[in-house]
Amino acid sequence: MFNKPTTDIIRSRFSCRTYQERPIAEETQARLEEYLASPHEGPFGNSPRFKLVAAAEGDSKALRGLGTYGFIKNPTGFIIGATREGEKSLEDFGYVMEEIILWATALGLGTCWLGGTFNRSRFAQKISLEEGEIIPAAISVGYCAKQPARVDKVVRDAAKGDRRFPWDKLFFKGRFGIPLGRDEAGDYATPLEMLRLGPSASNRQPWRVIKEGKVWHFYLQRTKGYPGRVFNVLLRLADLQRVDMGIAMSHFGLTAEELGLEGAWAMDEPDIEKPDDLTEYVVSWRT
Ligand SMILES: Cc1cc2nc3c(=O)[nH]c(=O)nc-3n(C[C@H](O)[C@H](O)[C@H](O)COP(=O)(O)O)c2cc1C
């Protein structure tokens, strides 16, 4: 799908929150726009839509009013996404928008998912939000000011891995609580590792996967008290942990595809006991 191995792109992606002031090169903007304009459908059949709003050379008017409450410095562009509310639409949104993040990463751009820290009404204007649509999240995009040096790649990988839950908290065999070793994951060790390196809102990592024979069951384990009702209502936040789930599915699915591992998504809840009522079944990958 990309011009580089998906695993390399996933490993090199990180949340960039400070950008260089130079606008995104015209040719790069054009390639990004072309990709955004192509049809996007998530594994559950929803088709979100996207728009790039970027500053042109010597002219930053395009971004006027697109505030991000101070967390993001000098962004030179935003990708705004909109979706209709519906069954699994937020998971599909996460899946497809993460493909866009990886596409932008492959083009040499820095990105950051923005779930709650942007000016909703201005973004809605820019994408001409329609009745029945919501903007679950946006992406800031541009040349990152802190492009980590290439020599640091190994160190960076390790650092990123350290900010993620270890395997035994995320991946299980047969039922919750029985850890799945990397060796037991077989060909799927890499898709699972790529899932683990994925971004999630506030780095909460709400995804859990259970291997049952040749099937991989995906569960959403919500974070207790997150993000909190008051916060949620005040900021009109979407259910970002469902978006996280879609992101996890994309890292897993794209990596499996690249490795030539055949499989398909199916919703068929197994008879596996869930640890608490914060945990819900989402989907399975059948090989
Ligand atoms: C759905 C979603 C929403 C996010 N919203 C924000 C945000 O509003 N502001 C921000 O600075 N980072 C945001 N992030 C970035 C996460 O904090 C970040 O992905 C996580 O801490 C892991 O770090 P990494 O992306 O550098 O690997 C968001 C990430 C996701 C997946």
Question: If you had to describe this structure to a student in words, what would you say it looks like?
Answer:
The chain is of the alpha+beta class and 287 residues long. It has two domains: 6-142, NADH Oxidase, CATH 3.40.109; 152-286, NADH Oxidase. Helices cover 33% and strands 18% of the residues. The protein is built from ten helices and ten strands. The protein has helices spanning 6-12, 26-37, 89-106, 120-126, 153-162, 167-170, 182-185, 189-196, 229-235, 240-258, and strands spanning 49-54, 77-84, 110-114, 133-134, 138-142, 171-173, 207-212, 215-221, 264-266, 279-286. Strands 1, 2, 3, 4 and 5 form a five-stranded antiparallel β-sheet that branches. Strand 7 and strand 8 form a beta hairpin. Helix 1 packs across helix 3 (89-106) and helix 3 (89-106) packs across helix 10 (240-258). The longest helix is centred in the last third of the chain and has 19 residues, at 240-258. The protein is globular and about 55 Å long. Residues 14-15, 17, 71, 112-117, 137, 160, 199-203, 240, 243-244, 247 line the site of flavin mononucleotide (FMN). The site of flavin mononucleotide (FMN) has 21 residues, from strand 3 and helix 10.
